[in-house]
# Entry
Amino acid sequence: MAKICPVTKKGSQMGGRYSNRIRATKFNPGGMLRKQPNLQKKRIFVPELNKHITLTLSTTAIKTINKNGAYATLKKAGLI
# Structure
C-alpha cells in the first residue's frame, strides 16, 4: 500500500538534517531524511450512500471531511 492520502494527495517528502553541533561550520554531514505524512486509518459513514467506507487518510483530510462533509469531499477527490 502506498503511503499517499487519496484525498489530499500528500506523500513523502525529502528534508535535510542539520546538526546543532556542526551549525557553526556550515557543513551538513547529516544528509537527507525522508519525511512521511501523518496517515490514519479511518472508518467513515457516508449518509448519502448509507454505508461505511474505510480509508487511510492524512489528518488534514480528516479535518476537511469534518468541515465539508464526507460525501462532498470524497466525491471531489474521485473516490465515490
Notes: Helices lie at 59-68, 70-77. Strands lie at 13-16, 32-35, 39-46, 51-58. The mean pLDDT is 89.
